[in-house]
Backbone:
């Protein structure tokens, strides 16, 4: 449910594209990311107040360099080009871009052109520390443009205020750039005329009304409720819109964490007052996973089986008393899910299929309602607080739709699932005891298809290996491994080896995202 009147970020494959969108939203202005190849008419339909062209890893003169339709610069909508975006603007409008004799990576110093009066740099110092990442430079300005900032070796900012086209060679969205947020604010409020109206209350009101219009007065919806933050917030929003015409279904897929099915049902019913039906379909899911080792195939089979379970339950409900047609399926899909699954990132590739996005079959018996698909995780938590959800739920760590199936490498068997559940429970218990649960993004165990020699008592062992993964993040787009105290790691390792039968070795994952993902599969 992408809002109109916000800012569209066109992605050329830049590593900071998500950060641009976040920085704009932090100013209470809605932003959405689209691939750079999107048609201008699709942009026009969104009625944006501004367009930002992201950075990217290519050179504008490369044979396969990403481009967008030049019509974007003629829509009459203010444009801000960043890094590659600036180079693309310059080249497209008749300027000169060439490989630099001196590349600029990392910190640098930019001097604002004296007396330029640029709206972009209003009320800012004449000299700023900036963060750059480019090997090409604009050597010749396009007709109608003027230079507004320079570094020692390159043109750092240019603009055509008549056409409201602005561009910078550095990255104002990163914290290493002095007053970068002020530069973005100047573009949003001084150039685009934005109003700081986007936030929790506005989002809730607009989303509830949009859902109410879409579902209409007679149709019903079924919600794939997992008990996590995302699906619960989505369920509460839809419940506000259509009331008792929403039926929530919590499925035991057989790949849930220890005691999760029973505890989640109790919380959703007793604490939140939602109408929730529990369906134990564990045998069905495990039968679908038998013999499967490829992670993408696991995700797709789980996605298909979820739909089959929901369709069966919907048919049963509609045969019940006074129940209208169930036309919609509600899911708690988030923006990172969409980005990783369907590759909206311009020229980037799909990283993995999420069961609630790319893992769904092409033909479904439902229309999807995904009220959170434009939000990041921390934004969803803020929406949840505005909805009055308890902190216990809002601080719950993310859990993948395919569950433990993607934390158990290799074939999923009941025996290995039991082992993983026990190890995973120990990780969570010790993270909580150390007072770290609300300070990290995720903490979990992974069962590896690796055995190693060990010794327990006087006997040689050849046991299983568990990897522990604990990461810190803001939105799951990037993540860093958590530097846990040694005594916490020691406690986790000791308990797993002593209490989980068959495990004789515990390792700690110190990989960041990128290059790794948070989940192992």
Residues:
């Amino acid at each position: 449910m992408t809002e109109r009147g916000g800012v569209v970020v066109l992605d050329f494959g830049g590593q900071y594209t998500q950060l641009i969108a976040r920085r704009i939203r932090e100013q209470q202005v809605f932003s959405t990311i689209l691939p750079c190849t999107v048609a201008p008419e699709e942009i026009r339909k969104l009625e944006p107040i501004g367009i930002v062209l992201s950075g990217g890893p290519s050179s504008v003169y490369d044979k396969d360099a990403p481009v967008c339709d030049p019509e974007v610069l003629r829509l009459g909508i203010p444009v801000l080009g960043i890094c590659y975006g600036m180079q693309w603007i310059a080249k497209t409008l008749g300027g000169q871009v060439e490989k630099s004799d001196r590349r600029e990576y990392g910190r640098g110093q930019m001097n604002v052109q004296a007396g330029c009066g640029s709206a972009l740099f209003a009320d800012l110092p004449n000299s700023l520390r900036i963060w750059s990442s480019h090997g090409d430079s604009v050597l010749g300005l396009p007709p109608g443009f003027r230079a507004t900032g320079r570094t020692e070796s390159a043109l750092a900012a240019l603009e055509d205020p008549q056409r409201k086209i602005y561009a910078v060679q550095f990255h104002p969205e990163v914290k290493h750039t002095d007053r970068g947020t002020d530069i973005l604010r100047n573009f949003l409020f001084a150039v685009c005329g934005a109003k700081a109206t986007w936030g929790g209350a506005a989002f809730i009101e607009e989303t509830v009304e949009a859902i109410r219009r879409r579902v209409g007065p007679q149709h019903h919806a079924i919600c794939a409720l997992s008990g996590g933050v995302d699906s619960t917030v989505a369920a509460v929003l839809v419940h506000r819109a259509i009331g008792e015409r929403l039926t929530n279904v919590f499925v035991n897929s057989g790949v849930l964490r220890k005691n999760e099915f029973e505890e989640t049902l109790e919380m959703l019913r007793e604490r939140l007052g939602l109408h929730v039906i529990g369906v134990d379909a564990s045998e069905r899911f495990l039968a679908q996973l038998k013999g499967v080792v490829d992670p993408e195939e696991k995700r797709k089979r789980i996605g298909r089986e979820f739909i089959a379970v929901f369709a069966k339950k919907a048919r049963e409900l509609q045969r019940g008393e006074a129940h209208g047609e169930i036309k919609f399926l509600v899911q708690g899909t988030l923006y990172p899910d969409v980005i990783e699954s369907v590759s909206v990132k311009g020229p980037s590739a799909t990283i993995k299929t999420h069961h609630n996005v790319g893992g769904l079959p092409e033909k479904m018996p439902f229309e999807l309602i995904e009220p959170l698909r434009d939000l990041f995780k921390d934004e969803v938590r803020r929406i949840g607080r505005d909805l009055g959800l308890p902190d216990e739920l809002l601080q719950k760590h993310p859990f993948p739709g395919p569950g433990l199936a993607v934390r158990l490498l290799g074939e999923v068997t009941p025996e290995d699932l039991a082992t993983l559940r026990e190890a995973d429970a120990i990780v969570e218990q010790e993270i909580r005891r150390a007072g770290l649960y609300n300070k990290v993004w995720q903490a979990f165990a992974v069962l590896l298809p690796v055995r190693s020699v060990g010794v327990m008592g006087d006997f040689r062992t050849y046991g299983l290996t568990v990897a522990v993964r604990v990461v810190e993040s803001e939105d799951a787009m990037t993540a860093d491994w958590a530097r846990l105290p040694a005594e916490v790691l020691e406690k986790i390792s000791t308990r797993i080896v002593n209490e989980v039968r068959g495990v004789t070795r515990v390792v700690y994952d110190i990989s960041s995202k990128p290059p790794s993902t948070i989940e192992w599969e």
Q: What stands out?
A: Residues 341 and 353 are 5 Å apart (CA to CA). The domain at 7-191 is CATH 3.40.50.880 (Rossmann fold). Confidence is low (pLDDT under 50) at residues 341-359. The chain is about 30% helix and 25% strand.
